[in-house]
Amino acid sequence: MIIARTAAELRAAVSGPCSFVPTMGALHDGHASLIRLAAEHPEPVVVSDFVNPTQFGVGEDFKSYPRDLVGDAALAAAAGAAVLYAPDVDEVYPPGFVTTVDPGPLSRELCGASRPGHFVGVATVVTRLYGLVRPTRVVFGRKDYQQLTLMRRVAKDLALGIDVIGAPTIREADGLAMSSRNRFLSADQRAEAVAIPRLLAAIAEAYASGERNPTALLLPTHALPSTLELEYLELRAADLSPYDPAAPAVALIACRLGATRLIDNLELDPADPTAAGRTLDAKEPV
Ligand code: PAF
Fold first, then answer.
1. Which ligand 1 atom sits nearest the alpha carbon of residue 52?
2. Residue 284: is its pLDDT beyond 80?
3. What is the set of domains in the chain, with CATH numbers?
4. Which of 27, 43, 143, 258 could make a disulfide contact with 75, Cβ separation 3.0–4.6 Å?
5. From ligand 1's centre to the CA of 173, what distance in Å?
6. Predicted TM-score of the model (pTM)
């Protein structure tokens, strides 16, 4: 695997079509599964490793966000990446850069409500990275469900000709969704964090037993420990429009444990109501 620090090095390594996995580094098994999914296609896989300053708000964890290029390179290579592209901030945002990509009103709801500007930062950097990497296919994790939905929107609205793939969430043995931020949790917080997949499991169980009323489905919120500060728990249609009991849906949660913000979700399908519970099982990376 080649480590490219500049667009010129990237171009020298990959000149034709490629698959792309954008990341902010601090790679874990969840990222490995995205890379493996991308590597199922014949084109070489480019993984970007760039902590994007424009998607962090004031007081958020940009400075403390974990960085580990050596560990990232080992994981990306083992998962089948051809290139790890780790550019400097000046290459992604050269002097004079002023363009932004605003993915619309949905970017100001859910996570966007408490993180103003976050999804404009994500959509802008990912679109810029598309220009540098020139992929035909991109893989995002389904854990960041709103991000995936918005990046599908951007690809469609801007007619980018990029196939956007959503990869299943990879979970720890106790069900906690893998995240680069899990490493910030103390032992006590890590034990409390399991309340999130347990809450989703309770929703999955109620849904499987035929419950479709949103208030009843979201009732298990009361079981969350008081140290876990709930930011939102919402039921939406699968495209994040308002919930429709007869259509595929998603329960989305964001909460804080101390300074660490965690998100997760559960996809619900009336055509296969027991499937949601199965997605909460720990999974080996594909
Ligand atoms: O999901 C992430 O890690 C980031 O939001 C992304 C897509 C790499 C953009 O910086």
1. 10
2. no
3. 2-167 (3.40.50.620), 180-281 (3.30.1300.10)
4. 27
5. 24
6. 0.96
